[in-house]
């Protein structure tokens, strides 16, 4: 099921890294984002395995898009202040999917966790966590 915001985020990213890597979003709503990409040569490292940066781009974009739609009223934006990835596997073909969930959100910070899976096998490829600093207009 597609939420109303998902197509707008897929369109908005064109010409930027998530668009270049073919990220597609199926759910973008407060506290939850789901997206994916189909593994292609552009996602690979020269050693023939999925490049870590492709996985991080998917997870970080999911968390960032979720942060954007989960800001408190009056906030002007956000910026990433920390991120961490643990890689547990890889993929050479198929679809890589991510689900990101907001664990904490208040006036100053948001904390997001994301899980990246190889959709075809169900195998977890990476666990990701990031902290966002909520930005406010200058008085």
- Helix percent reads 10-25%
**Sheet with the most strands, sense and barrel status:** 6 strands, antiparallel
Number of domains: 1
Task: Write down the Rg.
Answer: 15 Å
Q: Distance between termini?
A: 41 Å
Count every helix, treating DSSP H or I runs of 4 or more residues as helices. Answer: 3
Write down the CATH class. Answer: Alpha Beta
Helix vs. strand class = alpha+beta
The strand count comes to: 6
The percentage of residues in β strands lies in: 35-45%
Give the ordered list of helices and strands: HHEEHEEEE
Mean pLDDT over the residues: 96
At the third CATH level, what is the topology name?
A: Thiol Ester Dehydrase, Chain A
Unreliable runs, pLDDT <50, ≥5 residues? none
CATH architecture descriptor name: Roll
Based on Cα principal axes, name the global outline: globular
CATH H-level superfamily:
Hotdog Thioesterase
Major sheet: arrangement of strands: 1-2-4-5-6-3
């Amino acid at each position: 099921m597609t939420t109303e915001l998902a197509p707008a985020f897929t369109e908005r990213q064109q010409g930027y890294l998530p668009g270049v890597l073919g990220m597609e979003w199926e759910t973008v709503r407060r506290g939850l984002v789901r997206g994916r990409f189909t593994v292609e040569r552009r996602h690979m490292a020269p050693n023939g395995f999925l490049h870590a940066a492709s996985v991080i781009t998917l997870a970080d974009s999911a968390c960032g898009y979720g942060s954007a739609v989960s800001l408190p009223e009056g906030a002007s934006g956000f910026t990433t202040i920390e991120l961490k990835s643990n890689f547990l596997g890889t993929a050479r073909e198929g679809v890589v999917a991510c689900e990101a969930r907001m664990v904490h959100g208040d006036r100053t910070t948001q904390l997001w966790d994301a899980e990246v899976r190889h959709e075809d096998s169900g195998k977890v490829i990476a666990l990701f966590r990031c902290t966002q600093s909520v930005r406010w207009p200058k008085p």
